[in-house]
Every structure is written in structure tokens, then in C-alpha cells.
Write a structure and sequence with these properties.
By secondary structure, the protein is an alpha+beta fold. It has a single domain, classed as Lipocalin. About 15% of the residues lie in helices and about 30% in strands. The protein contains four helices and eight strands, in the order H-H-E-E-H-E-E-E-E-E-E-H. Strands 1-2-3-4-5-6-7-8 form an eight-stranded antiparallel β-barrel. The radius of gyration is 19 Å and the shape is globular. About 25% of the residues are buried. About 15% of the residues have low confidence.
Length: about 200
């Protein structure tokens, strides 16, 4: 099976915008992992059976601990990918007609970066719940949007692209940083004269 791309970790393929950014930023990452010469190592992990209709409430203490350590900080991997988490108010907490997962949900807004370039905003909010991958929190809208994180310590996060990720090719270790790093290989756009279109 082809490994998923970190740009399209939700498994639905890169958007046109993200494909364009990969070309523009020219950082040398490919959607198929392993082309950079890195050797993939197997990951040890456990899975568990959980009800599909689970909510944030059943994993509340762990989610609160995650939020306390993570919210508002910049989290960056050595590949330049990064995330920022923000708390999002649940406006349906007391809505008697709302679905249970919405009414009982702890919602987060998540921004995804490559160096200092924002790639995506999960602005509509993802609710957090226990992942079937032991120790991880799943951030989802119950549709195609799914992110998987584990708090290793106060300054370290682990991210995997799916709950059954098996190798380090599809894993990021993120560190808390004050700022996102600059792209070490910025692309300088040619001027009109250099392109031969200047009159």
C-alpha cells in the first residue's frame, strides 16, 4: 500500500492548493515517503476496540491535560511541518437537539504549517476523543478530517497520519518552539526581465 502524504494526512489526497505549495516551496518532500532516502523503522503500538459513537466526555481528563500543555504553542518537526492548537467554544453544549458527539464535544481549531507557510486551517472545529490507537487523541469531524496526536511530555508531541500507522515514514515528532523556522530552501521568483517577458 502506498504511504500517505503528510500534506494529505486525512487520506483524501492533496488539494490543488497544497499541491501548488509543495511545488512552490520546493522543499523536496514527496507524497510517497521514502524518496528522500530515509529508512523507515517499524513502530510499536497497540490498538483497542472503542464504540464508534464515543464522545469527548469519556476521555475528558486526558483531553484536558493535552489542552493545558498544547494550546497556543507552536509545535514543529525536523521536517518543517508544524501545528498550532486553539480551543473552540462549543456553542451546542446546551442544545437539546444536537447530536451527542457535538453536545458533549471538546472542540479545537487546528492550523497546519510547513515552515512559516500555513497549509490548512481546520477552522470549523474538530472534536477530540479517545483514539483506537492506545495513548493517542483523535481529532475529527466524524467525516474525512482526522488527526492523531499523543502527548509524550510537556515539550514533545507525536503525530501519525492514521490510527494504524506502522512505520516512522508516516510519523512526526514535534517539539514546542517559540517560532516556526524559516524555509531553508526558499524559492526566489524570477523577475519579468529574467522570464523574458519584460518590454
Amino acid at each position: 500500500m502506498m504511504a500517505k502524504c503528510l500534506f494529505c494526512a486525512e487520506g483524501i489526497g492533496c488539494t490543488d492548493r497544497e499541491k501548488g505549495m509543495k511545488l512552490t516551496l520546493a522543499v523536496g518532500f514527496a507524497c510517497v515517503f521514502g524518496l528522500g532516502g530515509a529508512i523507515a523503522a517499524p513502530l510499536k503500538f497497540e490498538t483497542q476496540d472503542l464504540p464508534s459513537d464515543r464522545t469527548s466526555m469519556e476521555y475528558g481528563p486526558q483531553i484536558n491535560n493535552f489542552a493545558e500543555k498544547v494550546l497556543g504553542h507552536k509545535w514543529v518537526s525536523d521536517k518543517g511541518y508544524g501545528f498550532v492548537f486553539y480551543e473552540k467554544e462549543n456553542l451546542h453544549r446546551h442544545d437539546q437537539y444536537a447530536e451527542r458527539y457535538i453536545k458533549d464535544g471538546y472542540f479545537f481549531e487546528v492550523h497546519k504549517y510547513l515552515y512559516r507557510q500555513k497549509l490548512k486551517e481546520y477552522g470549523n472545529g474538530l472534536f477530540a476523543r479517545q483514539s483506537t490507537r492506545v495513548g493517542f487523541i483523535e481529532f475529527t469531524d466524524t467525516g474525512d478530517q482526522r488527526l492523531y496526536f499523543r502527548l509524550i511530555d510537556d515539550k514533545t508531541l507525536e503525530y501519525v497520519v492514521s490510527d494504524n500507522t506502522r512505520t516512522t515514514q508516516s510519523q512526526l515528532i514535534l517539539k514546542r518552539e517559540d517560532e516556526f523556522p524559516e524555509n531553508p530552501n526558499p524559492v526566489r521568483l524570477k523577475s519579468a526581465r529574467e522570464r523574458g517577458t519584460f518590454q
